[in-house]
Amino acid sequence: MHWDLIKYFRENKIVQLLLNLSFALPFLLVILWIKPVSRNYLTVRKFSGMSEPLLEPHTFEAVRLIAVIVTMVIKLLLTPWYLQAYLDMAYHRIEEQKKEAGRITNIDLQKRIAAVFYYLCVATLQYVVPIIICLYLTFMYKTLGGYSWNGMLFDDESCAVDSAPDISDTDETNKSIIKSAQEFHMAVESLKSVFTATVFRGLLGFGIWWCCFLYFATTSTGMVYQSYFTRS
């Protein structure tokens, strides 16, 4: 679909630039998750004439999260164009049929055109689902990793959930409910001691990098196949 849009907007250079930028942004996200290329270069190395690195580690994390969200939002905004490019396949099939020799029945022609519309839901899912997964993992990475949008870490000591409720004035039913809630809270706290923020950052960070890598790899492979192997 990207290759079809590039050909459709070949006279509009601004739209072509936007489409190519949207196509290349997942690759830039992959680079941001490679530590020697991005993190060490931006948060450790001191350039000439500077006494400190370009970014602090927590600022780099915030920039990286915002970059993922902006990229996926741009792709969601371009969804109507990509789906329209897919629907235009019906028109291209009719044009190709006009150039072919021989005859074809109306039923066969209708089947070829209807197949495009029947497959629209699948094409939509193939385009939207990776974006939703990347956004979901990003929000989980931000929340479970202990980050905030301004690049500052949350203060774990400010949470008042650990304080035990006062059960002195409750009846037996309320005591049993509060006791069950306390037991559940203790179980959650024991899990938190195993799945710490560092563990979540490692798991979800790898998940985001892997999803962005697969997204760019599959779209690149499809574009190369369509631009090279389908040439007449």
From TrEMBL:
<dbReference type="Pfam" id="PF10268">
    <property type="entry name" value="Tmemb_161AB"/>
</dbReference>
<comment type="similarity">
    <text>Belongs to the TMEM161 family.</text>
</comment>
<keyword id="KW-1133">Transmembrane helix</keyword>
<feature type="transmembrane region" description="Helical">
    <location>
        <begin position="62"/>
        <end position="83"/>
    </location>
</feature>
<dbReference type="InterPro" id="IPR019395">
    <property type="entry name" value="Transmembrane_161A/B"/>
</dbReference>
<keyword id="KW-0812">Transmembrane</keyword>
<protein>
    <submittedName>
        <fullName>Uncharacterized protein</fullName>
    </submittedName>
</protein>
<keyword id="KW-0325">Glycoprotein</keyword>
<feature type="transmembrane region" description="Helical">
    <location>
        <begin position="194"/>
        <end position="217"/>
    </location>
</feature>
<dbReference type="GO" id="GO:0016020">
    <property type="term" value="C:membrane"/>
</dbReference>
<feature type="transmembrane region" description="Helical">
    <location>
        <begin position="116"/>
        <end position="139"/>
    </location>
</feature>
<feature type="transmembrane region" description="Helical">
    <location>
        <begin position="14"/>
        <end position="34"/>
    </location>
</feature>
<keyword id="KW-0472">Membrane</keyword>
